[in-house]
Design brief:
globular; Growth Hormone, Chain: A; Sugar_transport-like; transmembrane helix; 2 domains; two-stranded antiparallel ribbon; 494 residues; mainly alpha; membrane
């Protein structure tokens, strides 16, 4: 196990290393499922967390992004991203194991305050490791394979996420129903398992080769400032920041809207979320191939309008008189949301790596992550402040025809956020037009290519059988004519 960067990496070593990166992604994804999201929130609620403390838990991943600056300094000083990534990922796993072990060793010691402190350090160490890992992957993965590789990794990780989430949710529900006294033990056991899986991911990273990086000589803040002076990268930051703000102004309230305004059961909301994930899994391979063949910017130009349409469409899902109609509409929205976000998230990640100079990738990617995290954090806060204002405003427009009244527009409460969020997201696309990417192709040509590929696939799978059935009678006629010619000993015409 060599911790030093390699001057030259063979094709065999590269392929083996990429397999380790995929395996690392799967073990890390399992860790995330067990120690964050819905299960972390449920555990915090069970421990008696206040709304403010729940908000702190949600804000930790973005609040600690600023510590990526420390990663830049460490990479600059030691010039060994493999060692830095592995060390800080290892440190990030210890708080998770501590959360799992403490209730077993010291009953009653894991309070919500202790949980917040441990997770705070877990996110700090994880952000330092993550920035170093991004720079490492930028140099390790060939540019022409970037989209295909990360789409494969994301597809496998999402599939694992859906499977584990469902199985774990069923397990937690079983414990709550039959052994309610052991519910907190079930949650802490998840943290213990997550920490152990995280350790496996560190072992896999240690076996992954690292290309020797180009040293960075300038000071951290000067390097950070240089990324902001890059006009093309600054255009990407402007687009990505406004896009993140627009999405986080609306998307955090989707579940609230479906539960409170439409009145859907929680199981329906979870089911729609899974439907969106399955759609994302089905399409991410396609977007990965197209991002390598065409460009990431082209993928965004295709997928972003679809997602914006979904955001705006949410404002009208409470209007149908029939709840079944609303559920069908929501199902369609979630399918399109899944396929569009698969392309957008993949392209945004890849374009950041692609535009970053090879010797300063960690600085550029960290700058992008910090800006996006900042705007992603303030957007829900702005939404929360405006929630009361929009709750008291109502716009409705109806028409009557043949004695029947039809509602055309009915905006109130959260609906305004969806309209505003969609409008801001559309405005951000104007900023994307200023970003220049090598290999960029107009989205119109890509759409033509996609339609042609779909037609060819349909012809190969369905058309062959259809054609055989269509021409079967003429084939039989030709065979009969040939028999008749032979029988009458006539020569066939040339």
């Amino acid at each position: 196990m060599n911790l030093r960067p390699s001057e030259k990496i063979s094709v065999t070593e590269l392929n083996r290393g990429l397999n380790y990166v995929i395996a690392d992604g799967l073990s890390a994804e399992a860790m995330v499922v067990f120690t964050s999201g819905t299960f972390l929130t449920a555990m915090a609620i069970h421990m008696g967390a206040t709304n403010f403390q729940l908000g702190l838990l949600a804000a930790l991943p973005t609040f600690t992004t600023i510590f990526q600056l420390a990663s830049i300094w460490l990479v600059q000083r030691w010039n060994n991203r493999k060692a830095i990534t592995s060390l800080f990922n290892l440190l990030a796993r210890f708080p998770l194991i501590a959360i799992g072990v403490m209730p077993l060793m010291f009953r009653g010691t894991t309070t919500i305050q202790v949980l917040l402190v441990l997770l705070f350090f877990q996110h700090i160490f994880g952000d330092i490791a993550g920035a170093s890992w991004n720079s490492w992957m930028k140099d390790l993965i060939p540019g022409e394979r970037l989209g295909a590789f990360f789409s494969k990794r994301s597809r496998m990780a999402q599939t694992l996420n859906v499977t584990l989430s469902l199985a774990t949710a069923m397990g937690i529900d079983y414990v709550k129903a039959h052994y309610p006294a052991h519910e907190i033990t079930a949650y802490t056991t998840l943290f213990l398992a997550g920490g152990a899986l995280g350790m496996i991911s560190v072992f896999l990273l240690l076996r992954t080769p690292e290309p020797k990086p180009t040293p960075m000589d300038d000071k951290v803040l000067k390097l950070f400032g240089r990324s902001l002076k890059d006009n093309n990268f600054r255009n990407l930051l402007a687009f990505n920041s406004l896009w993140a703000f627009a999405l986080n102004l609306a998307t955090p309230f989707f579940a609230v809207f479906m539960l409170k305004t439409i009145g859907l059961p929680l199981s329906y909301v979870i089911g729609l979320g899974i439907l969106s994930q399955l759609s994302s899994i089905a399409f991410i391979k396609l977007w990965g191939a197209y991002s390598d063949r065409f460009s990431n910017k082209t993928i965004i130009n295709i997928c972003a309008p679809l997602y914006i349409t979904c955001i705006v469409a949410f404002a009208f899902t409470a209007m149908p008189a029939s709840k079944l109609t609303a559920i069908i509409l929501l199902g369609c929205i979630h399918v399109v949301t899944g396929l569009s976000t698969a392309g957008i998230n993949l392209a945004l990640s890849n374009i950041g790596m692609k535009l970053a100079p090879k010797n300063e990738a960690i600085v550029y990617i960290s700058a992008k992550n910090m800006f996006v995290a900042f705007f992603s954090t303030i957007a829900p806060m702005v939404g929360g402040l405006l929630a009361d204002f929009f709750a008291g405003h109502h716009i409705s427009y109806q028409i009557s025809f043949a004695g029947t009244t039809y509602t055309i527009i009915d905006l109130q409460g959260w609906n305004y956020f969806f309209i505003i969020g969609g409008t801001l997201a559309f405005a951000s696309l104007q900023l994307l037009s200023k970003v220049k990417e090598v290999g960029e192709i107009k989205s119109k040509k890509v759409k033509m290519h996609m339609r042609a590929a779909l037609r060819n696939k349909l012809r190969s799978n369905i058309g062959r059988e259809f054609t055989d059935n269509l021409y079967a009678p003429s084939i039989a006629v030709r065979k009969n004519v040939s028999r008749l010619i032979k029988k009458t000993q006539l020569s066939p015409p040339k």
